[in-house]
Amino acid sequence: MLQRERWRLQSVDLFVRSTVAQKPGEDKERIAPVHTMEHQLLHQIDLTIRDGEWVFIVGTNGSGKSTLARLLAGLGQPRITGEITRTSSSNAGASFAPLVTQNPEAALVGMTPAEDATLLLEQLAVPADEMPSRIEAAMLVTGLTEWMNQPIAQLSGGQKQLAAIAGCIASGADALIVDEPTAMLDPQASAAVMASLRELHRSGTTVVWVTQRLEELQEGDRVVAMKEGCVTFDGRAESFYQRDIGATESSSPCEEAGLHAPYVVQTVWELQQAGITLDPSMPLTGSSLAKAVSSYAKQQQLACQ
């Protein structure tokens, strides 16, 4: 049974306007003329995201991935052509899908994680008697129960990011968009944020994760790749890295998007060039690669007996 569509974009183009003041010339008292210019940032986007999906949006700087994330969140006032459909099973409303950016301090307004979540719930007109249970549940999911009343300034970068996410969870939104949430975090903090979001996803929340860190992708994840404002790939992570082994010159969708594959994937490519085919053909983690190589070695030993 197919899940309901959370977002559906059909032939969407997005334009933004900017003003440019020209030099007034020799007459310093003359007011410089202002011209409005329009730039197209997204081109013919066709994308459907269903309830409960986990979707990675990847691309280089300037590829349009953050613009697409803001569009999904309903932020800004760009000129848009095409058709966008948003639905929601949340009490917060169809248009509410919180966006968490790489700099959580820009979004946190409370003195503590609990106060920040409270302020958001007040903005959403959540009944006061529902707030404590919602906030406690959100802090539990993000692992911040012990620090929920700690001053924001005393939290680590990872904890601040989790505090921003906790407020979104408490809001009751059925979808969460995160734009490079681990870009400013160390590996340990990044792993904590990823684990928290994976747990949230398992509970049924739709998660859209924007990133350039391809090592965050796991087997089976859906990947949407962006380049120059266009979607160049939409499929599973394994296919995103797949090369045509039979071709003399072949590049994967990852390479075509201008991205550098993780070390594990590069190792798999080297093995493929050496004529070694693994099962599964494209492991994405060190442990799965080691297991696939061990299985291949055992098969070769049996074949030689």
Polypeptide structure, described:
33% of the residues lie in helices and 24% in strands. With 305 residues, it is α/β, with parallel strands linked by helices. The chain has a domain of 39 residues. It has a six-stranded mixed beta sheet, sandwiched between helices. A three-stranded antiparallel beta sheet has the order 2-1-4, covered by helices on one side. The longest helix has 19 residues.
Q: How far apart are the first and last residues' alpha carbons, in Å?
A: 47 Å
Largest sheet: 6 strands, mixed
Which structural class do the helices and strands define? alpha/beta
Oligomer: single chain
Order of helices and strands: EEEHEEHHHEHEEEHHHH
Number of helices: 9
Average residue pLDDT: 88
Residue share in helix: 25-40%
How much of the polypeptide forms β-strand, as a percent range? 15-25%
State the shape: globular
Spans of 5+ residues with little confidence (pLDDT < 50)? none
Number of strands: 9
Q: Which radius of gyration do the C-alpha atoms yield? A: 23 Å
The strand line-up of the biggest sheet is 5-6-7-3-8-9
